[in-house]
Amino acid sequence: MAQWTRSDLSKKMAKLDFAMLGTHSATGGITARPMSNNGDVDFDGDSYFFAYEQSRKIAEIRAHPEVMLCYTGAVGMLGGPPLFIAIEGRAALIQDRARFEEHWTKDLDRYFPDGIDTPGVMMIQVHAERIRYWDGGEEGEVAA
Fold first, then answer.
1. Phi first, then psi: what are they for 118, rounded to 5°?
2. Hey, which CATH number is domain 6-142, 2.30.110.10, 1.10.10.60, 1.10.246.40, 2.40.10.120?
3. CA 134, 85, 140: angle at the middle one, nearest 5?
4. For residue range 1-37, what is the model confidence (pLDDT) as tens digits?
5. Can you tell me the distance from the alpha carbon of 144 to that of 103, in angstroms, rounded to the nearest whole number?
């Protein structure tokens, strides 16, 4: 079993658009919701998502920045084995217009009608602390 690098992981993640973002809920449990990485898949250990400041996920991240991202998808040429990636990380909330521009894609205009100037828009940056993967017969951990 070969050990993947971040570069290997980035190439495999290139077609995976959605992740489930898991946070600690206000009631003490764990909750999750789908989030699009907006094609921002040049994975270097950080993942980026956009949200509205008044959303529940933002309040949960403020209270407990420890989060989990779960990605899955078929990535083989012929629909090969599915890829599963679990990332434990720490989220940071960003309100910097210049940073928004670095990660913004036109597809986001659907959710944020005024683009990066949409009132209340925030960026969630998840820095990976532990990355596990499963791809058919391959499984392992990538150094974060």
1. -60, 125
2. 2.30.110.10
3. 45
4. 568 888 888 777 777 878 999 999 989 899 999 998 7
5. 21
